[in-house]
């Protein structure tokens, strides 16, 4: 039985984590499915609840920056710069792990992913539990990460002990993952903390080539799995606004049961549903996963997604959107 609670019952949920249970909690990025990172049985239960392959490592969440020293065997000066600038916040740092961090949580790797979230509920939960909290996104493996409690309930009701009901996640895409163990700092997963924001501190930092070129094998184990997929087929349409409009309108006149995700406005006649991705890449990020799930709720077979390449958090939007579309993109 899953208990859906509000933040006034946080102590109960924190106790559940301390006792080896599973608790879904909000973060500034997406909802997370948390358990005690040092309890191997609880970690197994995370993998089971999500239907996730157990070689895909989990991020360990802490409520105070200093806790990183209880997880990592070495924290370089460069990593400290990142922690000082971006923690608490949507940045996950890969560091060499201490021996006591279970391989179960790191998917057999000698490194550990550490994140100190800024969301108050998340921090209070972690602090009150007295544990370090391993937490993947709170979705069934393969589907888009949930950014609101309704979508968490759709996926995980009956599979976890507690779901903490709180406001929608403001960022809407998972944290930036940066590898600080490799020779140069490498962004393995783009997010709200962008390469442009990191470069002034770490001029050598770069994006994993796997993110730029599909053929190169991604180093972030999670990136090799099919991800963020709605049931509907997604086709991304890029180009001049007018051309994009004409292309999609033409398709809609011939196909039925389609949805359109518009960017910077736009209206279509023959669509079963039209969802806006807003007017900025920040808004697109916040709405992307939500919209993908709502398209499925409408039962559309095909989604046409307007998109334009704008950098910043747009790099992360592009990464997730292209994965959800299986790289099905039309340039017009
Ligand atoms: O925003 C987020 O990061 C959310 C919230 C809940 O904090 N969590 C999240 O976790 O997105 P998850 O498990 O869905 O994604 C973690 C990613 C995966 O792609 C995983 O492969 C990668 O981080 N990762 C974890 N540990 C790693 C390690 N030691 N080396 C390389 N990649 C790692
Ligand atoms: Mg995930």
Describe this structure in words.
The chain is of the alpha/beta class and 332 residues long. It has helices at 10-18, 40-50, 77-86, 103-106, 120-129, 149-156, 195-198, 209-212, 241-254, 281-298, 314-324; strands at 3-5, 23-25, 32-36, 59-61, 91-96, 111-115, 133-134, 162-164, 176-179, 186-189, 206-207, 233-238, 258-262, 273-276, 302-307, 329-331. The strands form two sheets. An eleven-stranded mixed beta sheet has the order 1-8-2-3-7-4-6-5-9-10-11, with helices on both faces. The structure holds threonylcarbamoyladenylate (TXA) and magnesium ion (MG).
**Radius of gyration over C-alpha positions, nearest whole angstrom:** 20 Å
Helix content: 25-40%
Bound molecules: threonylcarbamoyladenylate, magnesium ion
Q: Strand-and-helix sequence, N→C?
A: EHEEHEHEHEHEHEEEHEHEHEEHEHE
Secondary structure: number of strands:
16
Number of separate helices: 11
Unreliable spans are 214-218
Class derived from helix and strand content = alpha/beta
Beta fraction of the residues? 15-25%
The largest β sheet comes out as: 11 strands, mixed
C-alpha termini separation: 50 Å
Taking all residues together, what is the mean pLDDT? 94
Oligomer: single chain
Overall form: globular
Q: Strand order of the main beta sheet, please?
A: 1-8-2-3-7-4-6-5-9-10-11
